Amino acid sequence: MGRYTARRLLQFIPVLFGTLFLLHYLQTLSIQFGGDPIASLFGDRQPPEATLNAISRVFGLDDPCLDQRGNPCLGMFVDRLANYARGDFGIDFNRQPITDLIFRALPITLRLTLIAVAFECVLGIVAGVLAAIGKDRFIDNFVRISTVFIISVPLFVLGVLIQIGAGLYLKPWLEGLGAPEWFTAAFSILYQSEHPWASLVVPGMVLGALSLGFIARLTRTSLIEILRADYVRTARAKGLPGSRVVGVHALRNALIPVITYIGIDIGALMGGALVTEGIFNIPGVGGLVFGAVQRKETPVVIAVVTLLTLVFLVTSLLVDLLYAVLDPRIRYE
What we know:
single chain; 2 domains; MetI-like fold; 13 helices; mainly alpha; 75% helix
């Protein structure tokens, strides 16, 4: 296990280098073909050329290679790697350190992601188990139909509908009943900094709704196949209770593909929170990236995408290590 973990950690290095170089090259191409992002900040009221050059020098965009289309600007890439190694991700166009922006936004997105993952895992796995146990019965048909409906509804449509229902109808009704403020904040249409967890409950459910449908269907399919295995029939023939057969012997192996999906989904949720954070006005990483794209602040986008890449790599490693916990037959040399 230790050797395998060390090898996987070493594999992080070329992946991160490749990701950083690809993002860096895309940034240089966008400047070479799309124009100077500094000049676009001023619109039609352009300052003197000397002022533009001075500002470009501050943000490290004065390299002559940016005037040569197709040039990868390897010198700028090496400088970027050196700065990243020191923990310096640069500054945005407002002269604020990008690390400070990320550290302010990241905890909010992490809380939103944790709520979404907990919501989709608990309800998705429970629904999938119930559907597998009651195959071709009412509960199975209900789970299959409801999950198809959830998967087919676009996220921005589902978010707006739930926002209207919770914010305009459910929350006023709860306030009329005298519910505590922390409880009603869970149904607010906007993020509230004084209730950093409660006000993220509904957005987290919206964010995890799509994955909930996939997890439920994946759990159902996997568990139905496992329940037909020989060792499950042997366990039943020995007289073991049905709950033990399903919960201990069958479900552990059935969860292996589900765990794989959840591990990949964690990174996807952090990156895909852009729509949800926009609907509910949440100042997280999604909002940070959205604003940076509008202002053409590519250093902010590169820093956030690099962070998300690292999250993908770590979660994939943890998922692989969790396989050995779920299935003792799996061993890493």
